[in-house]
Design brief:
Elements lengths: L11 E2 L2 E2 H8 L3 E5 H10 L5 E5 L6 H9 L3 E4 L2 H9 L21 E5 L4 H10 L2 E4 L3 H9 L4 E7 L21 E2 L3 H11 L2 E6 L8 H18 L5 E3 L17 H19 L4 E4 L3 H4 L3 E13 L2 E6 L8 H5 L5 E4 L9 E7 L11 E2 L3 E2 L2 E4 L6 E5 L19 E6 L2 E6 L4 H5 L5
Parallel strand pairs: 3-21, 4-5, 4-12, 5-6, 6-7, 7-8, 8-9, 8-10, 10-11, 11-12, 14-16
Antiparallel strand pairs: 1-2, 3-13, 13-14, 13-20, 15-20, 16-19, 17-18, 21-22
Helix pairs in contact: 8-9
């Protein structure tokens, strides 16, 4: 299931010809392997609830695919609530049947550190469960939805991630309710007439398993403060994905065992069942995604060779934001494979010095050993299915790319490419 190509050459994605995809839909293009997403969803079947952090990849076809796998969804905005509903999710759980050991999980949970006015309206209109990341949200919700149950997102005082920019815990993070303020927040919830039924912690995206494991102990301590009203605990997300050679997947079985033991201790203390959730984003979709882009120029700058392609950081922003590494491969236009390999820097078309896909954290240009490529060949940027299209922009007035879903060799368009008319729609002189 690993997406990267060891040879540096790639002719197919999930049984579909890369050249045919480019010819049919144009470049740059996002392509997703449906079976990889299904496989990753099933990796987490031991958990009571798998809740997709759709901010990682929110195309409706992807949301529909994970929904059909039994995965629920997290929404961080009014737009994501709308997407989840459009993909077929019910706004809230059905009433529990008598004798149910666990209350049903809400299909959509709104998770944020604030309510903007539109999101509060949407939550109230649809009766959506809220995961509160700030204490001020409690009174704001109580005014509009008296008697609601809520989840608290807690900042445990520490965090970790693949970049400081993806660290979501500790004093340097805006996210969550500070752990030392939980007693006061519980009093505020009680005064407002809201019941705290869930706890959630998330310390960072792409962190390592050792740091993720620390969350279980921190959440257990807060859970004891909350008490018997708890029916759900969420381990958050952050499951790492291997991008570089030599990196491996996390020990999912060991991670679940750790959390299951935490859950059982809480059940023994409270005398009732506790639902155990996990909230992956990157893990479900990263390896499914590819950016197909065309080589449009080959040039030397002193002793360094550059491949310039028609995708830029407006297409895939992770390298410019975090210095992120993505595997790359070449698909020659002709039938004959490329001969030899060379070290090249890969850049895009933008009028911006940071428009480099082979850069390290801090913006330093690096090179990558790739099969020799010429103008007209295709470059495939791999493991691009998380925080790829969703972070794309219209910088330099570039249209957003098309997206296609590939399933067992069959491909279909799931988002049309923007047109020049789309770029100026809504504007006026």
């Amino acid at each position: 299931m690993i997406a990267s190509s060891a040879s540096g050459l790639r002719r197919e994605i999930a049984g579909a010809s890369v050249a045919e995809l480019a010819e049919t839909y144009g470049t740059p293009l996002y392509a997703y392997d449906a079976e990889v997403i299904r496989h990753r969803c099933r990796d987490l079947a031991a958990w009571d609830t798998v809740r997709f952090a759709q901010k990682a990849c929110s195309n409706l076809a992807v949301l529909d695919l994970v929904r059909r796998e039994g995965v629920l969804v997290d929404a961080v905005s009014t737009g994501e609530i709308h997407r989840a509903l459009a993909a077929g999710y019910a706004p809230h759980a059905a009433k529990a049947a008598s004798g149910d050991a666990l209350p049903p999980a809400d299909p959509i949970v709104y998770t944020a550190d604030i309510f903007d006015r539109d999101s509060l309206d949407a939550v109230v209109k649809h009766g959506i469960h809220v995961n509160c990341g700030s204490a001020d949200m409690i009174e704001q919700l109580a005014e509009r939805m008296p008697g609601a149950s809520i989840t608290l997102r807690v900042n445990p005082g520490f965090g970790h991630g693949h970049s400081q920019k993806t660290n979501t815990g500790g004093e340097g993070s805006k996210h969550g309710i500070w752990h030392e303020e939980i007693p006061d927040v519980l009093r505020r919830a009680e005064w407002a007439g809201l019941q705290v039924s869930g706890l959630h912690m998330h310390i960072g995206s792409g962190t390592d398993l050792a740091h993720l494991a620390e969350v279980a102990g921190a959440l257990e301590r807060v859970a004891i403060e909350v008490g018997r009203s708890l029916t759900t605990v969420s381990a958050g997300g952050g499951l790492p994905v291997p991008y570089k050679p030599g990196e491996v997947h996390a020990d999912l079985s060991g991670y679940f065992t750790l959390w299951d033991a935490t859950r059982k201790r809480l059940e023994d203390r409270f005398g009732h069942r506790i639902r155990l959730e996990i909230e992956p984003g990157r893990y479900l979709t990263a390896e499914s995604g590819f950016v197909i882009t065309e080589v449009r120029a080959v040039k030397k700058q002193g002793g360094r060779k550059y491949l310039l392609v028609d995708a830029g950081f407006n297409t895939l922003a992770r390298p410019v934001l975090y210095g992120s590494y993505h595997p790359m491969s070449v698909c020659p236009r002709g039938e004959e494979p490329s001969h030899g390999a060379e070290d090249v820097a890969v850049g895009g078309p933008l009028c911006e010095s940071g428009d480099i896909f082979t850069q390290t954290d801090g913006g330093f240009v690096a090179t990558r050993s790739l099969p020799t490529a010429s103008v007209g060949d295709l470059l495939v940027i791999e493991i691009a299915g998380a925080y790829g299209f969703v972070m794309a922009s219209n910088y330099n007035s570039k249209p957003l790319p098309a997206e296609v879903l590939v399933d067992g060799g069959t491909h279909r368009l799931v988002r049309a490419r923007q047109t020049p008319e789309d770029l100026v729609r809504g504007e006026c002189v």
